[in-house]
Design brief:
alpha+beta
């Protein structure tokens, strides 16, 4: 005797992923039990509604494009988007979907990957940011600089790079140890961000070296104005465990395209200009007397 199979809906209710069937207009015709667990909506609350109403607003355009591909006959695997849960938070979903043209509908199976996506975002952040200051790192700077150059070529807008080295930073480590140096670097990062214009970017590229990317900066005079503002931001005293400390910075400037047309050339030019600035300021006595105030100051 052949055993009687249970209704398909009972089988689908055991699937841990959300199973959805929609018509050609995207209206939900069926959802399984896991749909409510993942999205928060009971079947009675969503059947007849367009599933796109639940998609996160920032992902709707991409989701519509993917739906068009599925309706055109493409088997879609591993497409990710975000939905708004009934309680208001977003959930990340990875879909497999296909069209069933003979039935005038399409079917999708969605797996929640919110925790996985959060872990991926954390890894992406760590790969592109300095762990001490939270600023973009050298890799992220290279990517942003490449994009900024392409944008400047397309639009004709200016672009400048500031290469900064902290004068007197070694004394901080000598006086207060590396913990004091780390605290100062974090404060420097905050001050640098406050000293830049909207749309600018500052990255930490070495122990006490930072680079600022200035999209739209039309010439060296404009870049110098930003550099002067950064020095003003850095000049207020820093509190070390054994007293106060004044820090300054040597800053080199490179402008696109006059000083280079690719990231490495621009950074090298700005780096060399920074060392020229350091030597000139040292000869003038601008740097050393203002860096490092005695503990009883």
């Amino acid at each position: 005797m052949i055993p009687k199979l249970p209704p398909l809906t009972e089988v689908l209710d055991l699937v841990p992923d959300a199973v959805c069937v929609v018509d050609t207009e995207g209206c939900l015709l069926y959802v399984n039990a896991s749909f409510e667990r993942i999205f928060g909506y009971a079947p009675a609350e969503v059947l007849g509604r367009r599933i796109f109403e639940l998609v996160h607003p920032d992902d709707r355009a991409a989701t519509m494009r993917q739906a068009e591909h599925v309706m055109a006959g493409t088997l879609q695997r591993h497409f990710r988007n975000r939905y708004v849960h009934k309680e208001g938070h977003s959930v990340d979903i990875q879909w497999s979907a296909r069209s069933l043209p003979d039935y005038g509908m399409r079917i999708g199976v969605g797996r929640e990957v919110t925790e996985l996506r959060q872990a991926e975002r954390e890894l992406e952040y760590r790969a592109s940011h300095d762990p001490l200051t939270g600023l973009p790192n050298r890799h992220r700077l290279q990517c942003e600089l490449q994009y900024a150059i392409a944008h400047a070529v397309q639009t004709g807008d200016g672009l400048a790079v500031l290469y900064m080295d902290l004068d007197g930073f070694k004394e901080v480590n000598d006086r207060g140890g590396h913990d004091a140096g780390d605290r100062l670097l974090r404060e420097v990062a905050q001050r640098l961000q406050q000293g830049l214009r909207q749309g600018d970017l500052v990255a930490r590229v070495g122990g006490d070296e930072f680079v600022a990317l200035l999209p739209g900066c039309c010439n060296i005079e404009a870049a110098q104005t930003v550099a002067d503002g950064i020095r003003d931001r850095l000049s207020p005293l820093y509190a070390l465990p054994d007293g106060l400390f004044r820090l300054d910075a040597s800053i080199g400037i490179a402008c696109f395209p006059a000083d280079g047309s690719d990231p490495d050339v621009l950074l090298s030019h700005a780096d060399r200009a920074m060392y020229v600035d350091k030597r000139q300021r040292s000869r003038r006595g601008d740097a050393d007397p203002t860096c490092g105030i005695a503990a009883d100051a």
